[in-house]
Amino acid sequence: MGLAYDIGRMLGTGIETETEMSAAITNEELPASALIRLVEMLAGTDRPREMTPVAQRIVSRATWQRALKNPRAGLSAAVADRTERVAALYAHAERVWEDAEEAREFVLSEQATLGGAPLDLAAESTVGARQVSDLLVRIDHGVAV
Predict the structure, then answer these.
(1) What is the pLDDT of residue 145?
(2) Nearest to 111 by CA among 139, 79, 80
(3) Is pTM, for the whole model, over 0.85?
(4) DSSP state letters, 105-145
(5) Residues of the chain whose pLDDT is less than 70?
């Protein structure tokens, strides 16, 4: 089972491969429910009011409100790409720590070696996501950070 399949499953979609995920992002077919599900996992709750601070680190308030209002709507390519990047980061952190709560804490907390929180870096850019992934690989292999 590959990473893309795990991400598709984690986001509650039928997406099983990276190719399918890429097409869903490009064609703006990744549903807003995928963003909602990701934020639920990161926030550790299914209560929208409590999820909003985490959601707004990924998307604008207006985008979050639209997602909540219509979970079946397709996300824009930019928002879908950001959702997938953050989901991949969270999935990687869960594999490293083998614990959802520890992974969540890592993703949401400031990391001195990165100069910011992994969630914020991954949401900002592909380069930021790669920096976080590199750190997770080093942690997983016991390399000093």
Answers:
(1) 60
(2) 139
(3) yes
(4) HHHHS-BTTTTB-HHHHHHH-HHHHHHHHHHHHHHHTT---
(5) 1-5, 144-145
pLDDT for res 143: 86
CA gap 21, 116 in Å, rounded: 27
User: Which residue in this structure is represented by tokens 């599900």?
Assistant: 37
Do 107 and 89 meet the contact criterion of CB atoms below 8 Å apart?
yes
DSSP the chain: --HHHHHHHHTTS---SHHHHHHHHHTT-SBHHHHHHHHHHHHT---HHHHHHHHTTTS-HHHHHHHHH-TTSBPPHHHHHHHHHHHHHHHHHHHHHS-HHHHHHHHHS-BTTTTB-HHHHHHH-HHHHHHHHHHHHHHHTT---
